[in-house]
Write a structure and sequence with these properties.
single chain; 250 residues; alpha/beta; Rossmann fold; 7-stranded mixed beta sheet; 9 helices
Length: 250
């Protein structure tokens, strides 16, 4: 929770600017925020990844754990500072992992962390957007970032085109129910607040500007993912802070 407070502190610096951007609709990108926003975001979400990613979420995916153990290609799109990317590289040494992010500063930080962890030989980081990254992968991951994208359906379509046959998209999103009234609780209130300051302005600053927000809910996410060409989407796990969804390529 200390990370959540750090995000809040960092967000405050931009409130006047964001207020004006809401009037004009031009948005405010993640990279334009105070560094506390980026660091706090990692600090908030990393414990959930550390405690659930390889012990619960990956095993819940259909056949994915065996692939990663034997050796597969993984893309972590919207990787930020690389917390999730490095966890995957540590857990599955036979696999190769690539982290993509549109923000150069985050990629620089991720490369340093990989070097410090001694993982530079099997993980790399590249600057690329969710609709422009290259390569083909057995598993593509979106960790708490799809709703921040300007064109989330286009991002899913790009993933669909860059999955190997039988590949999987793992989508981790902030926990949300489909009905507003079911989100009026402490976690939902915090997410709506952060969505107003961070997630929605981020999307509006990009092409298309879908502005899903951090409380999109599974039904809306299903529309986005199937609009990108996937035919199946199922919830495989959840925590008080996240839902984990699996989409499969045909």
């Amino acid at each position: 929770m200390i990370g959540a407070f750090e995000i809040a502190v960092g967000s405050v610096y931009a409130t006047d600017t964001i207020s004006e951007r809401f009037r004009t609709g031009t948005g405010f990108s993640w990279g334009a925020h105070d560094p506390h926003v980026l660091g706090g975001c990692e600090r908030f979400f990393r414990p959930g990844y550390l405690n659930n990613l390889t012990s619960a979420w990956i095993p819940a995916l259909d056949g994915v754990e065996a692939k990663l153990t034997a050796g597969a290609r993984i893309a972590d799109v919207g990787c930020g500072h690389g917390a999730s990317t490095l966890l995957l590289a540590q857990a599955y040494p036979a696999s190769s992992v690539v982290g993509f992010d549109a923000h150069q500063g985050s990629i620089d930080a991720a490369r340093k962390r990989a070097a410090d962890a001694g993982l530079s030989d099997r993980v790399r980081f590249e600057v690329a957007a969710a609709t422009t990254f290259d390569g083909h992968y057995d598993l593509v991951c979106f960790f708490d970032c799809l709703h921040d994208m300007g064109d989330p359906s286009g991002a899913c379509a790009h993933v669909h085109d860059h999955l190997t046959p039988g590949g999987t998209l793992m989508l981790i999103e902030p926990f949300a129910n489909d009905d507003l009234s079911d989100n009026l609780n402490p976690v939902g209130a915090a997410y709506y607040g952060f969505s107003t300051l961070l997630c929605t302005p981020s999307s509006l600053a990009q092409e298309v500007g879908t502005a899903l927000g951090a409380q999109a809910g599974e039904a809306r996410l299903r529309e986005i993912v199937t609009g990108g060409g996937f035919t199946t989407l199922r919830r495989v796990a959840e925590t008080p802070f996240n839902i984990v969804l699996e989409a499969r390529a045909a």
